[in-house]
Amino acid sequence: MVSHMGEKVGLVHQMPFVCDRDGFPSVLEKVYFGTCVARIYLAADLLGINSVTGMSCIFRKSIVDELGGLKAFGCYLAEDYFLGLGIQKKGFKLRVTSQPAWQNPGPSDIPSFQARIRRHVLYISRNDGFFSHENNTFTYCRWTQLRIAMVPTTILLEPLQECVVLGLCTAWAGHALFHWDPLVFFLVHSLSWFLLDYCLLTSVNGDWLTFSKSEFLLAWLFREFDAFRQFLQ
């Protein structure tokens, strides 16, 4: 991380990733972080868009002191995002390291993985009128709330970054404009996306994958075709 801290760089952060573990849910997690998350994260870095995650980062203390110190960001739920935004406004760049932030969340199953994607946070009600279940608990989707508050346009555009939704839209457009066969177009689109995702995952992982290509195919298909349902939920 230090090696990426150049003269004009104010903050260096790491892309979220996961360690190797046993079981299909761990393969699904690795495919998700190594394709969908990596694609967005690296594209944002390339375009200079703030995508800082606070799980692992280093920054220039002098810049943050000018912004009021870490205490000034304590009022934000997404303090990492606003920290990166403040450093950008000071004229400094943000950089992603070549080494991802390796997470080891322990054993998991598919429902808990899906809940993690949706970023559902469960709270115990304090009898303050914000509960809706018999066990006095309520849930809210943290990431959705953050996006609505900070960058609401992403809510409308988010489905278009997914392979299936984008493929269906462009297949329809290609048929309407150029009379291309929509099924052939969608299949070629999906195959190209699949191959590029495999290359991206192996690049992020930095070594050969510990699971087979067939396991990758199953996890990739499950994630891509379940993405829009997760978005709606």
UniProtKB/TrEMBL annotation:
GO molecular function, one term: ceramide glucosyltransferase activity
UniProt entry keywords in alphabetical sequence: Glycosyltransferase, Membrane, Transferase, Transmembrane, Transmembrane helix
InterPro entries for the chain: Ceramide_glucosylTrfase, Nucleotide-diphossugar_trans
Enzyme class: transferase
Pathway this chain belongs to: Lipid metabolism; sphingolipid metabolism; Sphingolipid metabolism
Record-level GO cellular component terms: membrane
EC number(s) reported in the record: 2.4.1.80
Biological process according to GO: glucosylceramide biosynthetic process
Record membrane topology: Multi-pass membrane protein
Subcellular location: Membrane
Family to which this protein belongs: Belongs to the glycosyltransferase 2 family.
Protein name per the record: ceramide glucosyltransferase
Protein's organism: Notodromas monacha
